[in-house]
Structure formats: C-alpha cells, structure tokens
Amino acid sequence: MDQQVKFLALSPESLPARLGTLPALVGTLGSNPAKWRVREVGDGNLNLVFIVESDVGSVVVKQALPYVRLVGESWPLPLKRSFFEFHALTRLGASDPGRLPAIHYFDEAQAIIVMDFLSPHIILRRALIEGRALPDIGRVLGEYLARAAFRNSDLCMKTADKKAAMALFAGNVELCDITENLVFSDPYFAAAMNRHTTPQLDALVTSLRADRDLKVAAQQMKHTFSAQAETLCHGDMHTGSVMVTEVDVKVIDPEFAFYGPFGFDIGMLLANYWMNFFSQRGHEGNGGREALRAELLDVVILTWDSFSAIFAQLWQTERNGILYQRSLFEDQGDHLGSEQALQHVLHGIWIDMLGFAGIEIHRRILGLAHNADFESIQDVDLRAACEARALKFGRHLAVNRASITYLHDLNALAMKLDQDVVK
Ligand code: SR1
Ligand code: MG
User: What residues sit around ligand 2, an ion, with C-beta below 5 angstroms?
Assistant: First the structure.
C-alpha cells in the first residue's frame, strides 16, 4: 500500500483543523484553534503564506505549492524546496544568531514551515519604496552576509561537514534552474516569459541582446554561479527577502539556497539597493527623495565595508578549514602572507559581487520576475526612464567588473545617470 501522505494545500478555513493539535502551534497560539484568526498574505512568486493569530500569540505558516504561483500549474515546481528552506533557515540562522526567524515546526511531506511572525516588521523593499528612514541595514546585512559566507565555507568548516552540506543542497536543482535561466540567460534573448516596458525600452533591449561583451559577461557569471561552490548562499537575497523595523533587520525566505560563490548574495542585495535608487524619481510624489537617494548609496558602501571588515575578522579568528591554513602563514610568523591571501579572496568576492549585481539589475527589468520598485511607478514613460538608467548601470557593472576599484566611483556614475535626460 502506498504509505505516502497526499499533499494538500492549506487554506485559511482548513488550517486550524489541520494544524490545531500540533504542540508547537498550541504552545504559541493556545489550544482552541476555533479562536485562531488566519489570513493568507503571500504576495511572492512561489508559495502560500499565512499569518495565524490568537489572543495569546502568533506565527507564520509557509507552505510550498507544487507549482510556481506566479505562473500557475503549467510550471510545476517540487515541494522539496521547503526542505531546503528549512535547512537553510537553520544553518544561516546559526551563522548569525537571531538574524533569521526561528522555526517552530516543519512538515516535509506537506512542505509546511511554521516560524516566528515578525511584527511590526515590514518588507524592506516596501520601506524603501515608501521612502522611509532606513534602520541600520548596511551594517547589519553586511555583517550577516560575511558571517554566513565565511562560516559555511571551506575557510571555516571541517571538510567532511562542508562536503556533506554541499551534497545536501545539491538537490535544490529546480530552484537553481530558475536562477540559471531567468537571471543569467533569458534577459539576453527573446525568451517566452520575458517582458519589458514597451515600446519605450524596445531599442535598448535590442541593443543589449546584441551586446557581445554583455552576453559573455552574463555567461561568465552563470559559470561562476554553477561551478564555484564556495559557501551556502541564501540564493534570492533581494530586498523582498529582508524584513525591517526601525530597530531590527531579519532575513527571510532562503528557499533558493545552494552552494555557490561568496559574492552571489551580496551582489544581489547591492543590485536591489541600486535599483531602488534608480526607481526613486518615480516615487517622489510631492516630496523630493534626495536624502533617501544619498542614504541608499551610503548603504551600498556600508554593506561592503561591513562585509569585508567581518570577513577579515573571521579570517583571523575562525579560519579553521582546509583553505589558507595557518600552518602556511601565521604559524610561520608570515602575517603578511595571510593578509595577502585575505586580500586576494576579498578581491575575488568584489569582482563577482559587481558582476552578479549587474546581471540581477537586468533580469528584474527584462525577464519574467520584475520588482515593485519599478513596477509600481504608474507613469510608464517615467518608469521606462528609470529602468533605462538602471540597465545602463547594470551593463557597466557586469562588463567592467574586473576594472572597477571603488564603490564611490560607481555611486558617482549612478548619480550621473540618474540626472541624465534619457534619450
Ligand atoms: C519563477 S520564480 C521568479 C523569481 O521569484 C523568486 O523570488 C526568485 O527571485 C525568482 O527568480
Ligand atoms: Mg522569496
């Protein structure tokens, strides 16, 4: 007899009956599920997300669907992404305690994760679009990204543990496949699911698809993504995967987790800051956004500075893995050699980070999955102008990444493009 439990999608109506006796939920919400209040709030591309509240507590219940929610049942997607999200939440959370929501319960067969309801947090992307003052995101996320990158890599882990971790996440094939296609390839040809602001961007899109240097750069980044298994990446580290209050920052949604390059997550995040920067002209309304624009560019610099500072600190204190062993450097009194090796590793991360950032900017404007920063600009001509500036900036990042030295120079270019009249 088939022992497999049939997958059933939750609904606000069925959730209390289905989960109402689980000790993990009862402990937080109380033992009378009839009094639980359930709302489905998922607005992402893939999953169901419920907020469950009672008079005594609250949780979030996230359930994967067997297809891509954004597209529908015509695009099946395995439920096992929930398994990878569970393990990524656990491992990334252990790398920087408190930075990811705590897990209350996991049901692999039903692809359900129950976790902390983050309140009064809001999605960082929304905060940026609304022009809210930013919490300490540059420092906090830069430090988080460094801890996660370093502590899940061969710089720190026992080699057997790192190889086992790579094997575990190697199964997240379908989610990597989404990134491999949607991020690195589809934007550069007439892929079926692409869309862009038309007709305003048509000429620019045509020129980007014919841009040999850009296409080679995109494929170099795809090569790095698929072949450089350096650390556990979140895999979808955009501003929609961060929740904030004025005093707290949380990272959510690591279902795209995989073993990949050190520079991937930080590159995706910087891309999303820069995209928000370029979108701000479309959100000014009655008030100017000069201060926020300047703050966003500062956040870019702070993110990298914090990342490299913590990475350097961990290099001194937690470098216990198989790479750049102390026996070759510090133990021989060769501190300069250790420093040279560190700078070499950071330089590689820097170049990859810029390349990934450029490609991420392109795919959010040319591919299937756009972002609200641009999409919510009602004036289509204005939106296209913002997008065009970002596309030009993204090309520069991707193609010239190896010869860029300073974020200040990039920020100056972003400001210049932002002030240009788009032809
Ligand atoms: C089909 S999924 C499209 C996008 O949504 C996710 O958030 C990832 O960014 C993915 O590329
Ligand atoms: Mg997500």
Answer: 44, 253
Q: Which helix (H) or strand (E) holds 49?
A: strand 47-53
Ligand lying nearest the CA atom of residue 254: 2
Shortest-distance Cα residue to atom 7 of ligand 1:
45
Residue 288 is predicted with a pLDDT of: 84
Confidence band (pLDDT; 50, 70, 90) for 422?
Answer: very low
How far is Cα 173 from Cα 370, in angstroms, rounded to an integer?
A: 22
> For the chain, how far is it from start to end, CA to CA, in angstroms?
67
Name the strand (E) or helix (H) holding 114.
Answer: strand 112-116
d(CA 390, CA 375): 14
pLDDT over 80 (residue 266): yes
| The ligand 1 atom nearest the CA atom of 77 | 1
The confidence score (pLDDT) of residue 64 equals 97
Could you report the per-residue pLDDT of 308-343, keeping only the tens digit for each? 999 999 999 999 999 999 999 999 999 999 999 999
> Are residues 196 and 205 in contact, defined by beta-carbon separation less than 8 angstroms?
yes
Mutate to test the pocket of ligand 1, among 181, 236, 359, 366 (most ligand atoms within 8 A of CB): 236
Helices (H), ranges, 49-151: 81-95, 124-129, 137-151
Ligand 1 close to Cβ of residue 8 (< 6 A):
no
Find out whether the peptide bond into 199 is cis, omega within 30 degrees of 0.
yes
Instruction: Give me the residues paired with residue 251 across strands.
Output: 242
Map residue 244 onto helix, strand or coil: strand
- CB contact at 8 A, 217 and 355: yes
Q: What atom in ligand 1 is closest to the CA of residue 44? A: 7
CB within 8 Å of 322: residues ≥ 6 apart: 154, 159
pTM: 0.97
Q: How far is CA 313 from the centre of its chain?
A: 24
236 within ligand 1 shell (Cβ under 6 A): yes
Q: Identify the nearest ligand to the CA of 240 by its number.
A: 2
Backbone angles phi, psi at 58, to 5 degrees: -155, 150
User: Does the pLDDT value for residue 420 go beyond 90?
Assistant: no
* Nearest atom in ligand 1 to 75's CA: 1
Pull the structure tokens for residue 203. Answer: 């000429």
Atom of ligand 1 nearest to the CA of 183: 11
Report residue 371 as tokens.
Answer: 């972002």
- What is the secondary structure of 391-404 as a DSSP string? HHHHHHHHHHGGG-
Single-letter amino acid code for the residue at 277: F
Q: Which amino acid is at 395?
A: R
